[in-house]
Amino acid sequence: MRLPFWSRLRLAPRIAILIVATTIAIEAYDRFLQHLLPPPGYLIMDQTWLGEAADEARRIAEATPAQHRLSALASSGLTKYLNFEINPESPDYPQGDLSRVAREVKAALVKKSSSPQDVLVMTEDFEEHAVKTNVAVIPGMPIYMGAESLVSRDSLVMADIRIALHLRDGTWLMIRPSDEGLTSLHYLRNILDIFGKLFFVAVFSIWMARSIAKPLSNLAAAAERLGRERATTPIGGMKLPEFAAIADTFNEMQARLKKFVDERMQMLAAISHDLRTPLTRLRLYAESVPNKGQRSQILSDISDMETMVSTSLAFMSDDIHREAYGVVDVASLLISQCDNFVDSGRKVTYEGPDHAQLPCRPVALRRAFSNLIDNGCKYGGDVCVSLSDKGTSLVIDIRDNGPGIPADQAERAFAPFQRLEASRNRETGGTGLGLTIARDVVLGHGGDIRLINDDKGFVVRMQLPRPRK
């Protein structure tokens, strides 16, 4: 059920409503629990009656043989509200700081006895969530008890009261209130009370947290795709007004960024295309240079420029006109690439499965593989291409025996038109776009590409994830 006004509420009112709803739910649950498992009751005793009952129980115990004392007390009628035990040793009841009820009950019993040491009284403070019957010892009626008196040291209501009376034969008569009800049910009630309240707090908190975190996750995913694919990923469906404003601003930013990048890519593509005509004229003029050495040098420079222009145009075109996805056997694609390089006289080997399916842009991926294998052949000699199917992704390693690229220059190596002097020189040719194109293709597939130097040589590692079903 969706509330019609809920989608128009801002974050602060939603949190306030959630807190109120949680409080109401907890209160309703507490009332239901009290009805299902009522809390323990109260045993209310008159203070004078308690003193007289204890003194009467002592007289019965002293007048009865030891083996018949408990049965004599049971037949006296006092066991309806009091429990009795005979203890051969004195109980450990602290007598230093007695409560009001303990002091008054002890004083009343001492009047009927010869020594204060023969009377021990102990009380336990009142517990709101008690699992046994609470006791109230009233000095007289009527009496008024405020809520604050329940938690004071002089409260007339307590969790328990225990009396020990020294008999003439050296034993002790132990007196305590009888307990009505099943203690285990009261334990169960307290446990259900705690876990039930925690459950309501957790449910409402998780629901609110998810309603806040999900839009943020969508925003983060859109930002990540924008940085990887450079394509707009509009965000919609935001219900919170605050998030809806953020989404609208983010969508506008995406559109401006894409327009900015597209305009400059188109401008660079146009410039590269327009350079072809003057380069063609320069090649014709170079043919007429009489000096053979100068002519060869000029034609070589023009060839390098034409290669750079062609590569740049291809790079710009790939970025502007993305091909459609299709399911491709990446293993077969890599095997085919390795065979092509072997046929051209290069030393390239393949290790891995014969088949590995992946939804991808096959032309772009083939170009990326070709660039990386070609770089390895130029700068590292022998190349080994390995494929590992991890289930959720494919990992492709292109390893060569070259000097590699220093770790501190790895990011620079991916920049357009960068050729690192430590491992690249003009004799090897190239425009400095090979790694740039490869990374652009891999990132466009949602993957990752890394440059690794180890004891066996230099590795370009690509990880291409499979889309979630």
Task: Lay out the secondary structure.
Blueprint: H1 11-36, E1 42-46, H2 47-63, H3 69-74, E2 82-87, H4 100-111, E3 119-124, E4 134-138, E5 157-158, E6 160-166, E7 172-177, H5 183-229, H6 241-274, H7 276-287, H8 292-320, E8 326-329, H9 330-343, E9 348-351, E10 357-360, H10 362-380, E11 383-389, E12 393-400, H11 410-413, H12 434-444, E13 448-454, E14 457-465
Parallel strand pairs: 1-4, 9-11
Antiparallel strand pairs: 2-7, 3-6, 4-5, 6-7, 8-10, 11-12, 12-14, 13-14
Helix pairs in contact: 1-5, 2-4, 5-6, 6-8, 7-8, 9-10, 10-12
Keywords:
469 residues; alpha+beta; Heat Shock Protein 90; four-stranded antiparallel beta sheet; 17% strand
Give a written overview of the molecule.
- Helices cover 49% and strands 17% of the residues.
- With 469 residues, the chain is α+β, with helices and mostly antiparallel strands.
- Among the domains are: 42-180, no CATH class; 323-465, Heat Shock Protein 90 (2-Layer Sandwich), CATH 3.30.565.
- It has a five-stranded mixed β-sheet with strand order 9-11-12-14-13. It has a four-stranded antiparallel β-sheet with strand order 2-7-6-3.
- α1 runs antiparallel to α5.
- The longest helix is centred in the middle third of the chain and has 47 residues, at 183-229.
- It is elongated, with a radius of gyration of 45 Å.
- The model is unreliable at 421-428 (pLDDT under 50).
